[in-house]
Each structure stands twice: as C-alpha cells, then as structure tokens.
Amino acid sequence: MSEPLFVIVAILTLGGGLGVVATRNVVHAALFLLLSLVSVAGIYLLVFAEFLALVQVLIYGGAIIIVLIFAIMLTRSQEYPRISDNPQWPLAIVAGLAVFGVLAASFLWNLPPASEPEGPGLAKIGESLFTKWAVPFEVVSLVLLVALVGAIIIAGRAGDRE
Amino acid sequence: MPLEAFQVLSAALFCIGLYGVLARRSAVLILMSIELMLNAVNINLIAAAAHMDQTAFTGQIIAIFVITVAAAEVGLALAIILRIFRNRSTVNVDEVDLMKW
Q1: Over residues A58-82, mean pLDDT
Q2: Do A107 and B85 touch (CB under 8 A)?
Q3: Which of A42, A89, A130, B17 could staple B36 via S-S, CB 3.0–4.6 A?
C-alpha cells in the first residue's frame, strides 16, 4: 500500500543525491541537497518516525542548508563555481559501486524476517530520551556547545584580542 | 514496505555520498556529500528500529544523536572552511596540502 509513495520518495532522495555530486554549480548542489534531505523526511514518515521527520525538516532543511549556503556565500564559491572534480573520479565511481555492491549483497543475502513498520509515538521517545538515555543526551548537548564555541573561536578574526 | 528496500536505498545514498567525497575538490561540496552519507546511516537506523526494535526504538534515539553531532560538525566545518579561505583564498582541498608528504 505504501509502495508507490516509497518509490516516489526514493527517486527524489537518490535524484537529489546524484544532483549534489553531479552538478557544476555550488548553489544548485545546495538546492539538490535540500531536495534530498526533505525527501529523507518523507522516508521517516513511511516508517512512522514522525518526530524524526520533523527534526529532519527543522535541522537539515532549515539550519544545515542555511549554514551551507552561508559557507558558499562567505567563501565566494559562486565566483569560481567550476572547481573541477578530481582527475581520480573514475576510480571514485568504481569505489562507490563496489561499496554499494557489497552493502546491497549483504542486505539481500540474509533477508530479515518480514515485518510491518511500527512507530513508538512521540511520548515514549521523549520519556525514553530523558530517563534511559539521559546521560548520553546531556553529553551530546555538551558536545554541541563545545563545537559551537570552538567554531566561533576558529572563525573569529585573528588578532582581535592579541 | 520490507526492511531490505530501505536498506538498499540507504546503501545507494551512502555510496552517492562516498563518490562525492572522493571525487569533489571544493570543500563545501565535500561537506554536502558527508551530509548525504550521514542521512543514509540515519535511514538505515530508523528503518531497522521501526521493523525490528519496536518496543525499545534504540535506532531512533541514536538517529537523534547522529543529527545533533551532524549539526555540530557542520558548524565546525564551516568555521574551518572560512579560516582556510581567509588564509589561503581557496576552498579547493587539493591546494591545502601543507601537511601532505
């Protein structure tokens, strides 16, 4: 029943991904990435992970794309959008296909028992996150804080304080 | 949908990201390809959690942590890219080869 929907979001996700790695224009790559990430939110909805779908749209579709577009703007990448690909790109295709072959073969070799997806619902995720997973939750918030402080220090103008 | 469909989709997305990381030379584009790979991992985790781990949903919780770390990573990577651009006027990773022998 969800097959047509799955096919549509899978095509959008993979198409967006291929656009990211194939386009010559950096801004187009960012927009393709947005398409791919929002389609991934659709995949989360298909497996009843509605909280993750919401987070995906907010964090990836909102924050991360904005940050990447800031990076493009501040490094003036659009003035020289044609930083060509590595000359080793045929090797990269071979490596990608090889890894995909191994992964797909291992997934299809031993099929998991057939089961229907089921979501736990928002309340249970929240409860589990603040009881069983409380310590990792606090640690990851500290990681985020340290990373952002570090980002400000690294990107800050050198010689302001010294 | 069976679980293996989601797994093959995530493998394909991961390999597209892998190709991007290996073949691109602009640091911003490499960052975008890394985002694709992280998302592929998240699809795998969440689909497996929905199919096989319906009472504990560990995969969903770990996916939340992955998204948080990805946000931190993007912020930090942007800072590093800005610093490299300011010091060397390039975002081409092939030209940043001071520590390469």
Answers
A1: 80
A2: no
A3: B17
Please tell me which residue of chain A has the smallest CA distance to B86: A75
Contacts of B79 in chain A (CB under 8 A): 150-152, 154-155
Radius of gyration of chain B (CA): 17
Q: Is B26 helix (H, G, I), strand (E, B) or coil?
A: strand
Residue in B52, B65, B82 closest to A155 by CB: B82
Asked whether residue B63 is domain-assigned, the answer is yes
Q: In B, which residues are within 8 Å of A72 by CB distance? A: 28
How far is residue A66's CA from residue B71's CA, in Å, rounded to a whole number? Answer: 11
CB proximity B88 to A under 8 Å: no
Is the distance from CB of B66 to CB of B9 less than 8 angstroms? no
Please check whether residue B100 lies inside any domain of the structure. Answer: no
A24-46 pLDDT, tens per residue? 888 899 999 999 999 999 999 98
Q: Tell me, what CATH number does B54's domain have?
A: 1.10.287.3510
Q: Tell me, what's the ipTM?
A: 0.90
Tell me how crowded residue A159 is: count the other CB atoms within 10 A of its CB.
6
Give a yes or no: residue B101 inside a domain: no
User: Per-residue pLDDT tens for B48-97?
Assistant: 888 887 777 888 899 999 999 999 999 899 898 888 888 888 778 888 88
Q: How many domains does chain B have?
A: 1
Closest residue in B to A135 (Cα) is B65
Q: Is residue B53 part of a domain?
A: yes
